[in-house]
Write a structure and sequence with these properties.
- By secondary structure, the chain is of the alpha+beta class.
- Helices cover about 55% and strands about 20% of the residues.
Length: about 350
């Protein structure tokens, strides 16, 4: 293309030079034969050069058209969904783009708006992901979800850039379905917050929930309670019957504690044989009621070990006992050890354990 452009410029320069020579000859020469011959020769050269120029221009246009066709063919065969849209209406898409929305032929999408293509929930997800971008922003990456009538979700990642399409501003979008990757990511994230043995929230999850509930309690001027629950005699079970029996016991206890708390409460395994219960918006009487329920019904639920395993519970309250996470946890832990010192199989409020 650059080579042809240089040749075209050269030919135009020659044509202009010949025209100037012709004008000079016309004004300064006589009507002698040789001057007429020169004029005729110059005119013939002009015609030849013009024809050559037209040939170069046609060749340039043909090459440009061929490249555009090749580019369009590559887009059509691309496994990724490609769209060109202008003011929210589709100007071009390939087969993969049509299939992404369950359409048989790309032509069926042309001139349709996103709102006409997507259901209400999918369109809202797309709109929220796109609102912060301007049409002439050079490049962007955004994510949105596609929802079907059965409640299934597909996760879409879209990369778009500002282009000129048919001489007017538009955006070219390359979209791909990342549902498998996103599902795996969410599964791994969930695993990082769940205790592998008991399938209840782990230490990380409990700490994050406690940080959040402290913020909410401060904003709403509400109280909450926290319980440290420890198994008395767990080491003996492990040493006597083996770790498999010990693991089974931990699973039993986790299920039992979930039965004893309110719907809004959280039971999690803090580590080893120690559990934490978070009681949002609870007052002292709520905590005492749940602690008594846990202690009293333990022998009925935990089979095989009721004569060997009991529970010691320590309780602290926000904001009565403390107003920061570290302190309120330390106080609940301290109350739990006081319960152990006072004979085990009982609960202690921090305020009553000092």
């Amino acid at each position: 293309m650059d080579f042809l452009s240089r040749k075209t410029k050269g030919l135009f320069f020659i044509l202009v030079a010949l025209a100037i020579i012709e004008i000079i000859v016309g004004f300064t020469g006589s009507k002698e034969k040789w001057e007429m011959l020169v004029t005729l020769t110059l005119q013939i050269l002009q015609v030849i050069l013009f024809l050559l120029l037209m040939g170069f221009l046609n060749n340039t246009i043909r090459q440009s058209t061929d490249k555009e066709k090749q580019y369009r063919k590559l887009l059509d065969l691309s496994p990724e969904a490609i769209f060109v849209h202008r003011k929210g209406r589709i100007a071009y898409t390939n087969e993969a783009g049509a299939k992404l929305f369950g359409i048989n032929k790309p032509v069926e999408l042309i001139n349709l708006s996103w709102k006409e293509i997507l259901n209400a929930k999918s369109y809202e997800s797309l709109r929220l992901s796109s609102d912060k971008y301007e049409i002439d922003q050079q490049f962007k990456i955004h994510h949105f979800n596609l929802y079907d009538d059965g409640g299934n979700i597909r996760y879409i990642e879209a990369k778009s850039t500002y282009i000129l399409f048919d001489g007017e501003p538009a955006r070219e979008v390359i979209a791909r379905d990342i549902t498998v990757q996103e599902t795996n990511k969410q599964r791994l994230k969930k695993l990082s917050y769940i205790d592998a043995l008991t399938q209840i929230p782990n230490r990380r999850s409990l700490l994050e929930q406690l940080e959040q509930i402290i913020k909410e309690s401060k904003q709403n001027n509400k109280s909450f309670g926290i319980m440290f629950v420890d198994l008395d005699g767990f080491k003996q079970i492990n040493d006597t019957y083996g770790h498999a029996k010990g693991d089974f016991l931990l699973k039993q206890v986790s299920e039992y504690l979930k039965l004893c708390v309110r719907e809004e409460d959280t039971v999690g395994r803090f580590g080893g044989d120690e559990f934490i219960i978070i009681l949002p918006y609870a007052v002292q009487t709520d905590c005492i009621s749940i602690a008594k329920k846990i202690i009293d019904n333990m022998p009925l639920f935990i089979s095989g070990y009721h004569d060997q395993v009991t529970l010691s519970i320590g309780i602290s309250l926000y904001p009565q006992d403390a107003n920061d996470l570290d302190t309120i946890m330390k106080l609940a832990d301290k109350a739990m050890y006081t319960a152990k010192k006072r004979g085990k199989n009982n609960y202690q409020l921090f305020g009553n354990s000092t």
